[in-house]
Amino acid sequence: MLSISISGVERVAPRGRKYVKIYLLLIISCTEKLQTLNYISFLSFHPKYIQNFINQTWMQRYQTNISQGGLTLLWSTIVSMFTLGGLIGASVGGTLSVKLGRRGTLLANNAFSLTAALLMGLSSTVGSFELLVIGRLLSGMNAGIALCVQPLYLGEIAPTALRGAMGMGTSVFITGGILTGQVMGLKEILGKEEYWPILLSTTCIPAFLQLLILPWFPESPRYLLIDKGDEEGCKKALRQLHGLADSGDALEDIEKEKNNLVGFQAKKPWELFSDRSLRWQLLTIILLNIAQQLNGINAIYFYADYVFRQSGIPMDKIPYATVGTGACECITALTCGMLIECLGRKVLIMGGYVLMSICCVFFTLTLTFQDYSPVFPYLSMVCIFAFILSFGLGPGGVTNILTTELFTQNARPAAFMIAGSVNWLSFFLISMVFPFIVTGLQQYCFLVFLAVCSLVVTYIFFVVPETKNKTFVEIQNEFQSSKRNKFCSSDGAGTILLSTSI
């Protein structure tokens, strides 16, 4: 049935865009959960389960209990391995996407997920917490590669008019993965102590699904024509993705981009830093990816448990309230996906950061006066959900879309490597520094996040152009023609890359 539907795209041209949407749902549902399902399910049950397993294993090996310091170190190592793996994956994802292709990289990436699921699922049976460490590392590598290559793939296969909506699919299914992990971590499902190995091994499910579904779909047409020079393969992929009626326009767009890149090889990450024509695009994605982790969203989730307890929610009911926050973010991402082609990227990401800034102010006030009235804990809950809604509305999804749109084919993989590395490093930084910020500033820590959000709004307003309904070359031309890039000579010298008229 699947093969009939896909091949039907070539015969029924008017339905081409419908099948693009089907393609989006199939592919994203099998990729982004590889990262979120494992990470959230791992943290959704109480850490004492893993710590008990470590202590029991240590006792069996050495006939003594592990010291508290040693236990904390091992637990921290297991948790942090995911971040380290993510950084490694993001660092190699762009290179793999050039060597193996976008689809080929996503398929090969499942090996990390399957191996990680196997190791973590067997760790309890064989009595080895070392398998957890290795499994978490491999799981993080899988996530880092997926978050680098998957938005790149979707951005390249999407029609210009649907590129934003398809790009938002990354955010939609990340939040869907978070919500799935939270639900699966409930005690009624897999949240009991004896089930934690099964819970961690469930990441094999989306990996198997992707291995079954993804081979039915083509490689990125842009990659086939521009990187590999395979014109026939590109035409076939376009017919399969867009239908006969729309494939001609898409091919013309790709050919124009190819003509602009004649003589240019795929760039390495360090080459982007030395390319003055890309300095504002590069600065933009670096700042947006830093802000995505440092804007306070992690702090909100940290404080959620405290606020729920202050509001009188029983301890055994707090996990259900936490599921509500995941559902809230998922719904907002869906809403953003429906609005992005109407309102545009700039409006959504700016609006999201503006609303987050306002929430930071009110959340600081409600936490400060938490004990003055029973009303304030409930106002704090409102601020939590409002902050999560604001994050999902723009910063959570639009950031990846801009990383796709601000670069042309030869620079895009390297840009994703830089963006992914910056994002994972920022994630690691905030996880290390945040406890000290909370200890030192307490509820006033949100004034720091207020400053971050406000600065990002200012930067986006003055620097980042609207990219809605523009081709990749048009976006590049807009950056090149701006006053910020006066290094280009007035007679056009130095603009060989963008010389072809649109």
TrEMBL record:
InterPro entries (UniProt xref): GLUT (IPR045263), MFS_dom (IPR020846), MFS_sugar_transport-like (IPR005828), MFS_trans_sf (IPR036259), Sugar/inositol_transpt (IPR003663), Sugar_transporter_CS (IPR005829)
One GO cellular component term: sarcolemma
Superkingdom per UniProt: Eukaryota
Signal peptide (UniProt feature, chain positions): none
Domain Major facilitator superfamily (MFS) profile: 24-468
GO biological process: D-glucose import; dehydroascorbic acid transport; fructose import across plasma membrane
Gene Ontology MF terms: D-glucose transmembrane transporter activity; fructose transmembrane transporter activity
Family: Belongs to the major facilitator superfamily. Sugar transporter (TC 2.A.1.1) family.
Name of the protein in its database record: Solute carrier family 2 member 11b
